[in-house]
Amino acid sequence: MTSGSPAAPGSPDGPRELPRGRVSKVRRVRGSRRPPTVTTDTARPEGGGRAAGGDAPAPARQWPLLLVLGTAALGLLVVGTDPFWQSFRIGTMLVGAALLLGAVLRRLLPSVGMLAVRSRFTDMITYGVMGGLIVLLALMVQPKPWLRIPFLEDVLHLTVT
Question: Widest CA span of the chain, in angstroms?
Answer without folding.
Answer: 76
